[in-house]
């Protein structure tokens, strides 16, 4: 049997809605039932973002759906706020940058690293509508260019 898939959940919309300035990998503080649910692939981070509160980073809006076999003595909250584990230097960078106008912290993906659940977060600036249009146009041009090259090589 091969290794389990590395990626748990991805936020594809984040790269479309934001200019990514800098990426960080953060550990995530989880409860037992959440780890089991992540191993089953029951996570969604599309609506999630990171806030800084009292010098700590918190993941807000991530949804980890409990398994139906979850223990009866645990009351699972799928959208609870989860603490992110970062080095002090990384945390200082994020705090300093988010105090500047226009910067936010978004979750890009959730994955496994050596058996530990990690979240890829990014310092990002919101895109304007025309920036999104330019991205779509660029992506379409790249696709068209690949088709042309493929046709020429036949």
From TrEMBL:
- The source's superkingdom equals Bacteria
Query: Which organism does this record belong to?
Result: Thiohalorhabdus denitrificans
Starting at the broadest rank, the lineage of the source organism is:
Bacteria, Pseudomonadati, Pseudomonadota, Gammaproteobacteria, Thiohalorhabdales
Single GO MF annotation: RNA binding
* Protein family membership: Belongs to the SmpB family.
Q: Where is the composition biased (Basic and acidic residues)?
A: 132-154
Localization, per the record, is: Cytoplasm
List keywords of the entry alphabetically: Cytoplasm, RNA-binding
Q: Where is this region: Disordered?
A: 127-154
Could you tell me what this protein is called?
A: SsrA-binding protein
Q: Main localization of the protein?
A: cytoplasm
Q: Which CDD domains match?
A: SmpB
Gene Ontology annotations of biological process type: trans-translation; trans-translation-dependent protein tagging
Annotated NCBIfam families: PRK05422.1, smpB
- Any single Pfam family the record assigns to this protein: SmpB
Its function, per the record, reads:
Required for rescue of stalled ribosomes mediated by trans-translation. Binds to transfer-messenger RNA (tmRNA), required for stable association of tmRNA with ribosomes. tmRNA and SmpB together mimic tRNA shape, replacing the anticodon stem-loop with SmpB. tmRNA is encoded by the ssrA gene; the 2 termini fold to resemble tRNA(Ala) and it encodes a 'tag peptide', a short internal open reading frame. During trans-translation Ala-aminoacylated tmRNA acts like a tRNA, entering the A-site of stalled ribosomes, displacing the stalled mRNA.
Q: Name one GO cellular component term.
A: cytosol
What InterPro entries does the entry give?
A: SmpB, SsrA-bd_prot, SsrA-bd_prot_CS
């Amino acid at each position: 049997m091969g290794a389990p898939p590395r990626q748990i959940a991805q936020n594809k919309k984040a790269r479309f809605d934001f200019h990514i300035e800098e990426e960080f990998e953060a550990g995530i503080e989880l409860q037992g039932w959440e780890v089991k649910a992540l191993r089953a692939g029951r996570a969604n981070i599309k609506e999630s973002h990171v806030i800084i509160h009292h010098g700590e980073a918190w993941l807000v809006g991530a949804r980890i759906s409990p398994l139906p076999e979850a223990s009866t003595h645990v009351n699972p909250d799928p959208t609870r706020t989860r603490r992110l584990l970062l080095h002090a230097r990384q945390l200082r960078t994020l705090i300093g940058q988010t105090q500047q106008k226009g910067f936010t912290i978004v979750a890009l993906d959730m994955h496994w690293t050596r058996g530990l659940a990690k979240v890829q977060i990014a310092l990002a600036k919101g895109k304007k509508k025309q920036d999104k249009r330019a991205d779509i146009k660029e992506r379409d041009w790249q696709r068209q260019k690949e088709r042309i090259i493929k046709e020429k090589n036949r």
